[in-house]
Amino acid sequence: MVLSILLAGTMAFQKPQNFVVIFVDDMGYGDLSCYGNTRYKTPNLDRMAANGAKFTNFYVGSPACSPSRASLLTGCYPTRVSVPQVLGPDWKTGLNPDEITIPRMLKASGYATACVGKWHLGVKNLMPTHQGFDEFFGLPYSADMWPPNGNWPRLFLYEGDKPLEEIKNLDDQAQLTRQYTEHAQEFIRKNKKKPFFLYMTHSMPHVPIAASKRFLGKSGAGLYGDVVQEIDWSVGEVLKTLKEQGLEKNTLVTFSSDNGPWLPYGDHAGSAGGLREGKGTTFEGGFREPGIFYEPGFVPKGLVVNEMASTMDYLPTFAKLSGATLPKNEIDGHDIRDLITGKKGAKTPWDAFYYYWPGELQAVRSGDWKLHVPHNHRHQTYPAGTGGKPAGEVTEHIGLSLFNITKDPAETTNVADQHPEIVERLLKLIEEARQDFGDTLTKRVGSKVRPPGKVDTTG
After folding, report:
1. Helix, strand or coil, per DSSP, at residue 94
2. Taking a C-beta distance cutoff of 8 angstroms, is the pair 238, 185 a contact?
3. Measured distance CA(287)–CA(68) in Å, rounded
4. Is 65 a catalytic residue?
5. Phi first, then psi: what are they for 196, rounded to 5°?
6. Assuming Cys at both sites, which of 76, 249, 342, 443 could form a disulfide with 80, CB separation 3.0 to 4.6 Å?
7. How does 425-443 read in b/e, with b if 16+ C-beta sit within 10 Å?
8. d(CA 257, CA 180)
């Protein structure tokens, strides 16, 4: 183990030619067996973690779909790029095509780029092929935004900018994981002789959940377990395809989720793994996610990283590894090559990490400490819903609260009174972020916020 880490440190500046980002929807920190789940097995992701790096303090940019995706693709807090909220199908804004996304950055360096799966960052002229992707196959937004769940427009699978086939029922939803997998494999095979970036964004396990017949009833842990096991199968198929094409040792593969579990859905939702609350909150259950990095010969086997990192770090890290040019616009992520490769003594590059939801700055983490300013939040009571129907969510209020997030990741013991100097320091960080990114909680407008993209309504 020591030898593998030392070897990895000497390889830290080699350039993985290809990048595969697998990003699932509404999966909790505790949903994989390599992160403690005992109800069902996720063998492919377990092997990926055992033969790569597993992060235990890995964060997304938001506890909800659209802003989390905007954050990953731009390396920025979602408030900076003006996508702080979940976008509806008929919204007139989204991610600005002027933003330098990962695919646009890599495309300028000769990469083939594809988005396979859920987009959810704007429609029409804000779709993936207008944001740096050569190809798109998937849904334009969340799979629950369809007629059976309200007054939504009809839901279609897209290829490029064109609707391909309508998603009419749960049987159609059950085919999505397989369809995404097949298109991802096709893209890899087609581009095996050139560098590529694959952004694979599963619609599952966001409700409505559905598994194909091959996996239905096989997990022994209900439909949610079946769905997660099918995702695990998909990961295995992608890794197998990379190996078959001779690309396994030349492709950095990452796995994470856009936010924590949607707890009101009970048996159709995941587990935050003992963390507090879930999706739509600034507690750890909303922001902290599985973070797995895999590339044989580059990422050391069995590496466990307890230092803090984020999906915002993908863009600057990929830039350094590929030789691509970083955006001229300011970003918030950091180069985490030293963490991924197990460099001795490597520390998190994050001095402060801000928790926004949606435009409210509700908390900050610095080192071992996390401070919540007073705010209202979702709270899940039990029993929760069953069979795809939500239940049990109420609104609660938290006052000024300080937690030692290393010793108390469940955020149970407020120690603000015992550490007034730490509270004062973190409040100063909060004030700095309000100046930069704004804060709807205190009605502040940020000085470093860039405009959103606008949907073309003329066509």
Report:
1. strand
2. yes
3. 9
4. yes
5. -145, 160
6. 76
7. ebeebbeebbebbbbebee
8. 16
Retrieve residue 231's tokens.
Answer: 């995702």
Pair 94, 126: CB distance under 8 Å: yes
Q: How much is the mean pLDDT over the chain?
A: 96
Return the pLDDT at 150: 87
Is 76 part of the annotated catalytic residue set?
no
Closest CA to 299 of 53, 56, 34: 53
Q: Give the contacts of 150 (CB within 8 A, at least 6 positions apart).
A: none
> Percent of the chain at pLDDT above 90?
95
Residue 208: cis peptide before it, omega within 30 degrees of 0: yes
Sequence-distant (≥ 6) Cβ neighbours of residue 358 within 8 angstroms: 62, 64, 67, 84, 85, 86, 440
Structural tokens at position 95: 């991610």
Over residues 296-321, the pLDDT tens digits come to: 999 999 999 999 999 999 999 999 99
The catalytic position among 76, 120, 183, 372 is 120
Residue type, 195: P
Closest to 120 in 3D by CA, of 79, 162, 85: 85
How many angstroms separate the CA atoms of 400 and 419, rounded?
12
DSSP 389-431: ----EEEEEE-SEEEETTT-TT-----GGG-HHHHHHHHHHHH
The three-point CA angle 38-25-218 to 5° equals 40
Token pair listed for 78: 């979602």
d(C-alpha 360, C-alpha 439), whole Å: 5
Is the Cα dihedral 202, 203, 209, 214 positive or negative?
Answer: negative
Q: How far is the C-alpha of 1 from the C-alpha of 155, rounded, in Å?
A: 49
In eight-state DSSP terms, residue 86 is P
Distance separating alpha carbons of residues 178 and 405, to the nearest angstrom: 38
Tokens 């402060």 locate to 352
Q: Is 256 helix (H, G, I), strand (E, B) or coil?
A: strand
Signed CA dihedral, 53, 308, 64, 115: sign only: negative
Query: Going along 111-263, which residue ranges are E strands?
Result: 112-118, 135-139, 156-159, 162-166, 196-201, 251-257
Q: Is 382 exposed, middle or buried (0-12, 13-18, 19+ CB in 10 A)?
A: exposed
Mean predicted confidence (pLDDT) in 161-182: 97
CB 186 within 8 A of CB 135: no
